[in-house]
Amino acid sequence: xxxxxxxxxxxxxxxxxxxxxxxxxxxxxxxxxxxxxxxxxxxxxxxxxxxxxxxxxxxxxxxxxxxxxxxxxxxxxxxxxxxxxxxxxxxxxxxxxxxxxxxxxxxxxxxxxxxxxxxxxxxxxxxxxxxxxxxxxxxxxxxxxxxxxxxxxxxxxxxxxxxxxxxxxxxxxxxxxxxxxxxxxxxxxxxxxxxxxxxxxxxxxxxxxxxxxxxxxxxx
Length: 220
Description:
The chain is an all-alpha fold.
């Protein structure tokens, strides 16, 4: 994502469909998600925009999620020249060289196991917390990990939509000007230790760990 200044909800509602779709695709690179959110215009309040995002996210297929994830850089390596991804991964930027190397190794192991980039809402999280989340999620089943990925993508979308919409000038009677809870998280959460998955599943036999390999260029 490269656009940063807030556009405002009223101006977003008034944009031509093509321009609005381009902005939504910078927030989440799934065309299915962008199309569904676009179809919900005009939005009276920011909370309505959040709800449209959540509803669209719930309907994404695995291939749609893969499209969205492909636009996110690996943790510890934000896109060059992109202030948004740099800000979102600020916590990893101050890591020691040793910790950065460990993050790279864990990223590679994660991608070998699950076939996609490690996705987490990194805003407000330090490098150690990101490392701990990587370690923990490596033991997940693919099914559980997919649920967590969907939740984390929703959190990222909320933060980016907030920056797009800017201050909310409308007030809903239900006071719902906050993102839908997708796992005890909102768009404005304080730094915290990454949470455990929603419920514990039945004990599973631990799968053999992927063999450690030399880091590849690009990490994806």
